[in-house]
Design goal:
11 helices, alpha/beta
């Protein structure tokens, strides 16, 4: 075995980034065809950085298309595809589609995660008890898709977000306790227009709310690069997935919401470093063991590109070049 396999630095980046990037090539701005997205996912799985790759994201309305493609193209000995299913459209109907896909494609493909949007009323600022009633039908319908896939419920960011985000997260935690099933939250971090991007304060509020209730979460949209930066094409500041990882880790260590907001808002790549002792941001260090607990909470993020974030991590010196 190579000596570097025993390196604490290798362990640190493996713990922090393993399976982090769920591939969303079907979605904008890539918007690849199913065949092209499958080709890209296969290429990434066979590449030197395959350990960073997570699940293949597919809408429930396209599962039949994906299943047909896999049936005709999978080679002997190919590892099963882990799928994150977006329960789009009618949630109950989408859950049936996901359940059928899981049964028919086993063991070639397995539904590993579910993603579904909560009604906007759930985060309009109403108390958690009332929000829990609002989300109950959606949660119940989603749970019928699989007994083992972890569902993540997307929390909308509205005008009343100061109360809406923590109350919606609290409602999810209530439903988790009532149904005795694990579930998580999800945050949309971007889109095709500036208004689709939540502020750093809103992202921090979501992370802090999930941390306070030990609720796992994933993020989606807009997180193509590790560190927060300006996008001239959309005229907006894009969030960085490394910012979110560090913010989640430091929230667990006792940072206040103001401090977590500062981490989310960080734009200097030099402020972050990964070393044998763990991950650091401006002198605040997170040990390797704590990074593992952070990743237990921050499950993954969706990206329509795999090559871009990997290349950036290589440039930062946090991931080895091939």
């Amino acid at each position: 075995m190579p000596i570097e396999a025993f390196s604490q630095l290798r362990t640190a980046n493996q713990v922090l980034f393993s399976g982090l990037i769920d591939y969303a090539g079907l979605f904008p701005p890539a918007s690849l065809s199913m065949a092209d997205a499958a080709t890209e996912y296969r290429r990434a799985r066979r590449g030197p950085h395959s350990w960073l790759l997570g699940r293949f994201i597919c809408p429930a309305t396209r599962l039949e298309e994906l299943g047909g493609l896999l049936m005709s193209t999978m080679s002997a000995g190919e590892k099963p595809w882990p799928i994150s299913v977006i329960l789009d459209g009618d949630v109950a109907r989408a859950a049936v589609a996901a359940h059928s896909f899981d049964a028919e494609m086993d063991p070639a493909a397995q539904v590993a995660l579910l993603e579904v949007a909560l009604p906007s009323e759930a985060s309009d600022g109403r108390p958690p008890d009332e929000a829990a009633v609002t989300i109950a039908p959606v949660v119940t319908a989603a749970m019928t898709a699989s007994q083992v896939a972890l569902p993540f419920f997307e929390v909308a960011v509205g005008e009343s977000w100061q109360a809406g985000i923590p109350n919606a997260v609290a409602a999810l935690a209530q439903r988790r306790q009532m149904i005795h099933r694990p579930l998580g939250g999800k945050l949309r971090c971007g889109g095709g227009a500036p208004e689709a991007f939540p502020s750093s304060e809103q992202v921090a509020a979501f992370i802090m709310s999930c941390t306070a209730l030990d609720l796992p979460f994933k993020a989606t949209a807009g997180l193509h690069h590790p560190v927060r930066h300006y996008d001239a094409e959309v005229d907006v500041m894009r969030h960085g997935f490394l910012n979110l990882l560090v913010a989640a880790a430091l929230a667990r260590s006792g940072f206040t919401i103001q401090e977590v907001t500062t981490v989310v808002d960080e734009t200097d790549p030099a402020a972050f470093s990964l070393a044998a002792a763990g991950l650091s941001w401006r002198g605040h260090r997170v040990r390797v063991g704590d990074l593992g607990r952070t990743r237990e909470q921050f499950a993954a993020y969706g990206s329509c590109s795999f090559d871009e974030p990997v290349a950036d991590l290589v440039a930062l010196g946090m991931v080895a070049a091939p």
